[in-house]
């Protein structure tokens, strides 16, 4: 079964594997399959479920809410996010203004079928809204009982520091960051993780399998597998493109002996690897089939010996992205329209 870890310096525990429904619920898979995946997660001991209002333009929240009906609410941790455009995408339908946050939390709660979310996250940093306005709105959401804790996603170290300081002044806890992190994408290690450790902020990491590349199913010189994320025209292919280089794919294949030594698949090795970082509270997994959930949770509780961690580093070598500046460079420079 899946273990649980404290989220930052808070008293909240979340499952070390979080089930997320980005790019699946409401878009890639039918609702019946989505519900089966959620049930598989529950059966495996996963209690933490992550979504966002922007996923499938709010539909993913509704699908998750329906899938969790009948479950004891107190036994779940439900996470959602706000920032990206939703609805008809009018001038105030995006960003972290007070207006958008207060309206978005109400919409998310209605779609999820719950009175509160355990963690409400700023899905990106809003360069066009004063941070004081954003954090005051989050403080009010917490005081109204609509969210228990506040987190962010893909914020830089400086943004985390500023947001954390304001949250303390306003009387609530900023306890988490949700960045991309994998064996191939380690940009948070240089600045974000050290700052987070200092501030009591934990990481809930997405794409631990690098959009599926670390599963080993993409082989250099061979056609892309039919039905894979790399062939998904609804958005999946956009995010995986940076990893679909022959030099990267060849190095991934060289990790098979490491996975075999641990009795893991390559995908399980990838999830287990991110969980070795003591600042990571949970790894986000998605699934288009219940069997994928069952397989991924086998990474929980695995301890990778230091010599094998060093071997992974040696195999991957210079195909790993370490540049901490990538967090800022990949962030939106203006509020999305």
UniProtKB/TrEMBL annotation:
Belongs to the shaker potassium channel beta subunit family. This is Aldo/keto reductase. Residues 16-315 form the NADP-dependent oxidoreductase domain. Gene3D superfamilies: NADP-dependent oxidoreductase domain (3.20.20.100). SUPFAM superfamilies: NAD(P)-linked oxidoreductase (SSF51430). The lineage of its organism: Bacteria, Bacillati, Actinomycetota, Actinomycetes, Micrococcales. CDD domains: Aldo_ket_red_shaker-like. Keywords: NADP, Oxidoreductase. Pfam families: Aldo_ket_red (PF00248). PANTHER family: HYPERKINETIC, ISOFORM M. GO terms for molecular function: oxidoreductase activity. InterPro entries: AKR, K_chnl_volt-dep_bsu_KCNAB-rel, NAD(P)_OxRdtase_dom_sf, NADP_OxRdtase_dom.
